[in-house]
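FAQ: What does the model actually see?

It sees only this:
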Amino acid sequence: MIFETVDKVKEFYKQYAIRCGFGVRVRSSSKGEDNKLCFVKLVCSCEGNYVSTIPPELKSQPTKTKNYGAQITVVKKGGQWHIKNVILDHNHDLSPMKSRMIRGNKKLNIQVKRTLDMNDETGVRINKSFQSLVCDVGRFENLPFVKRDVRNYIGRQRRALGKEGDDQALMAHFSHMRQMNNDFYFEINFDDNNRISNVFWVDVRSRAACEEFGDVVSFDTTYLTNKYDMPFAPFVGVNHHDKSPDGILTDQCRAMQNAIDIVFPNTPHGWCLWHLMKSIHENLQGYTHYKTIKTKLKTLVYESLNVHQFESGWQQLMNDHDLDNNDWLGTLYEERKRWVPCYLKGNFLAGMSTTQRSEGLNAFFDGFINSITTLQ
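And it is asked to produce this:
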């Protein structure tokens, strides 16, 4: 068989699995030289060997999952997906009538979700909503989900951002601020379910300060994460009456680095030295001479007066302790111009090597907000 896309392959095998009475998951996949998917293996959800972490003496019936063989393998050739290998046999009993109970086969479609949302808004209890859905299809077995799935969905919706009026209150407040001054700026992004995914705002005074005195900006995303799993990430500027080259200081985050390279290609970007030094223990503690390595590394970073001294000292450290194969140190060395002080002498960072100013402002916010504070 031949399919146009890998998604059609997955849907076809999933529908086959539902009819037969088993679940499906992706066992393995790989990409080609063009970094695009070219191979996928789909297997029965019971496939694989699993040994419980609970000691056998504490279990009344110790179990071990068998290595079931049912699977299909598909490869991409000439823009289409071809089934390369098929194994239909299972080492367990199949139950088509109970297929809907398998996790991967459960599904709440858009119509069901809309009905549940409307019922919940009007105060209808969850068990009554579920009973109404059963009545619509005639019997429990005709529903591709169970009551627990309904309860979980309603729970997620109640916790969703905007359910408590945050989104309306936020929009009203921002609109009011915009009416007071057209230079107030805000941006709100929504996800596929029309719920707020992130918010950015900046008042007029901050915009003016950034334009006139924005010598250096510190951006810290490690601060408070609220009830919606959204971090509160303030931009902290360093004001100075001399117009100096712009600079930005963040922790070691690849995503932020990529974004800064695109949006601010001419802005010197430094990494927080304190965060890097703090991670030494996590990445090097397994070495026999860890304490010696740590001391030498800190001395090398903080006391190297020039690039040549750092380069020769780094190579000596790698040779003395056989550290050439350490991936973490290799990455740090490749990005040394972002965090080693002797490389940053030509960049203006207002005397900062850490995001300490951001953390200082975080302490200010602690007096007003906490992890359960809503956007409103």
